[in-house]
Design a protein that fits this description.
Layout (H helix, E strand, L loop, with lengths): L1 H36 L2 H12 L1 H13 L5 H14 L4 H11 L8 H9 L5 H17 L6 H16 L8
Length: 168
């Protein structure tokens, strides 16, 4: 009777170890497939696209440069800035040339996509930044000069952190 229990216990231990080994190799295989499926550059570009630091710039400046009684103007200025983006012929032209998309840029994420696109050159990026600055100034009721400067500086810093593209 004791030999039977020992065989059963050994059999259970072998099964558990085998199952653990299979699960470990399966997990390692899935991890390897995931890691090898995207190059680091592609993964970094996807993360940057998802995070859209331009929107982050508006949040950061809003938290530091807007007094509680100025929230309504700040919100209206952002909405007006957003509404100006799809009407910008410059952004539409750059989007058509750089991205190859035949439509207008519709929002801040679209601006970021143009900036990170691999076809974007230093000149293209500067044209986008110049147009963003123009739209910031045209937004009404309007950002204060300090807010405009802070937003411009933040967006420029984010753009400069990208580094060169293949066409840079």
């Amino acid at each position: 009777m004791k030999i039977s229990n020992i065989n059963t216990n050994i059999s259970k231990k072998i099964s558990a170890v085998t199952l653990f080994a299979i699960m470990t190799f399966t997990l390692a295989g899935l991890l390897e497939i995931t890691l090898l499926s995207e190059s680091p550059a592609v993964a970094q570009e996807r993360e940057r696209e998802r995070s859209d630091p331009i929107t982050g710039c508006f949040k950061e400046v809003g938290e530091t440069q807007v007094a509680p009684n100025g929230i309504q103007n700040w919100t209206e200025s952002i909405q007006n800035f957003d509404s100006l983006i799809p009407t910008s012929d410059t952004l539409t032209l750059i989007n058509n040339i750089v991205v190859g998309d035949s439509g207008p840029v519709n929002d801040m994420t679209g601006i970021w996509y143009v900036l990170i696109n691999g076809n974007s050159t230093a000149h293209d990026r500067q044209m986008v930044l110049d147009e963003v600055n123009s739209l910031l100034a045209a937004s009404k009721p309007g950002f204060t000069k300090i807010q405009q400067d802070s937003l411009s500086r933040c967006i420029t810093n984010e753009t400069n952190s990208l580094g060169p593209t293949p066409n840079y």
